Amino acid sequence: MPDTPNTYRRGPDERGHFGIFGGRYVAETLMPLILDLEKAYNEAKADPAFQNELKYLAKHYAGRPSPLYHASRLTKHLGGAKVYFKREELNHTGSHKINNVLGQVLLAKRMGKTRVIAETGAGQHGVATATACALFDIPCVVFMGATDVDRQAPNVARMHMLGAEVRPVKAGAATLKDAMNEALRDWVATCETTFYCIGTVAGPHPYPEMVRDFQCVIGDETRAQMHEAEGRLPDTLVACIGGGSNAMGLFHPFLDDPGVRIVGVEAAGHGLETGQHAASLTGGRPGVLHGNLTYLLQDDEGQITEAHSISAGLDYPGIGPEHSWLKEQGRVEYVSATDDEALAAFQVLCKLEGIIPALESAHALAHVLKLAPTLPKDNLLVMNLSGRGDKDVPQVAARLGMKA
Amino acid sequence: MSRIEKRFAQLKADKRAGLVAYISAGDPDAPLGYQILKGLPAAGADLIELGMPFTDPMADGPSVQLAGQRALKAGITVDATFDMVRRFRKEVDNDTPILLMGYYNLVYQRGAERFCKEAAEAGVDGFILVDLPPEEAGALKPHAEANGIDTVLLTAPTTDDKRLPAVLKYAAGFVYFVSVLGTTGTKSATEEAVRTHVSRIKSHTKLPVAVGFGIKTPEQAAAVARHADAAVVGSAIVDQVKAALDGNGKPKPDLVAGLLAFVKSLAEGVRSVKKA
Ligand SMILES: Cc1ncc(COP(=O)(O)O)c(C=O)c1O
pTM score > 0.90 for this model? Predict the structure, then answer.
């Protein structure tokens, strides 16, 4: 067993490592740029003008703070923990992704970059990036797996309307991993002028730290809002995990509160036993991909295997390195939910609370449906409702045999 | 003296630059891939880079991506790659340096210590690991050194004079200058840019400097040879494999001969330049 550190919130070290995880495994061409980015980010972080501009945008443009909502019908239905939703789906553009994107695009502007690229799975990060680039008048190119272009068509149309170029990527299973490969290839060729806006807490240092910092607004607000609503800390936190940004944003501010139980939900696809899933922490082992050392789905040799999830935003064979570290520390529990469980949870939320969740967030809900009934009524449970399901309407309607 | 050191010393004595030929191990399949490997020295390759196929070659352009996919489809593993090198050392020669090129995860999964030991035992001379910058090389370096394997590090146009010494501190064998911003096989650098960067790198190190990325013709190889100690050609060589596959992906009978003839033309380009 590893020694218990006196804080879980100090990482990463100056080389971007969380224990053995993280780091900067990138081509030399990118190394100087990543060092530049780190320096620029540290300066921006310490600059009140930058922080104020970000706060202003978060409030007046993105609509923060997002509400902390007590889901009373769902709570009653489950008959256990008191369930709250952190309503990130109400943010402008429909998910938590905007929190990070506003920070990164402001930083891009500050660094004098003239073009922004991004990878996207569900298209929520792509839409958020296209949105911020429209606002700041910066050309934007979004890489998206061809499979995801099909299954998240509404978001592709939104990106086009916002003036972004969407480049479908046909390699591999044509999902998020392939989009990230292609974004990295573009970046090596254009790094002197282009800012790579990564959508989750993964990639080479400083991305996992920077994206986490921008997303921590979720947990910071939750803390204050729960204090106002209940006069104390929550007992249980639940969030879905693709790369892990909405989860990290909620979890990180509570890591040093030992009474708070924290649960991350990975995508179990067709079921862990089928091998067709996206649960890197449960079904993978440490390895190096996309600039960081982290848990990955891979074969014995180290060839990366294809992930599977009904949710494009969770369909990724890796996870942010800080989650890998938190797993090994035992501070956060990592569980999973299947495609079918997520679809069932999706429908429960529509009918009981009148909220159409993103399929990603439906994975977190699927676990809440299992967990909440086992907890006492005074257990305060917060689930991160990371996004709204508009983008999933055609896909889910087809799946359920409804007319779209 | 290592094979790499010896080879560069010989090139210097011969007053010429070298040709570094890149192929993807086992492309398009194990038997043909070995025939290609076997024929490279006679075709004029002075050093050989053997690509270890990886599912996610983030720093490679379409040509090398496809080559790796063909090899993976043919079932090429790390062990199969080691076997090819072992057989080459027995059947072909014990002088031509062979470097494994690829991505760090394959090394990491086997464990750096075991990987280095097995590679050295097979007859490998160096590693070029695209996604292992000096900042992360600390876990590999001691095992490579203990097994007499050179870690060839990459430098790029973005590696400025301030950063160069930190990179060169970890470099061994030779320095690989990536002459353009981009993935393999896409853009080509101007001769003037190559000249400037090579002389800049040489002011920091005594190691030989090889230049690669975007060299596609004997003329371009000659232009690089005027300034660098070696020219690296990869995408243009693996494109020869692609060109010799029929519509169903079946190799045409002249695949090996055609590829080796192309390598010979590159070698002639490099050898046409007389060095001081
Ligand atoms: C609504 C929503 N939630 C969650 C995710 C998963 O990403 P992360 O784990 O970084 O929050 C996505 C990604 O596309 C998303 O759109």
Answer: yes
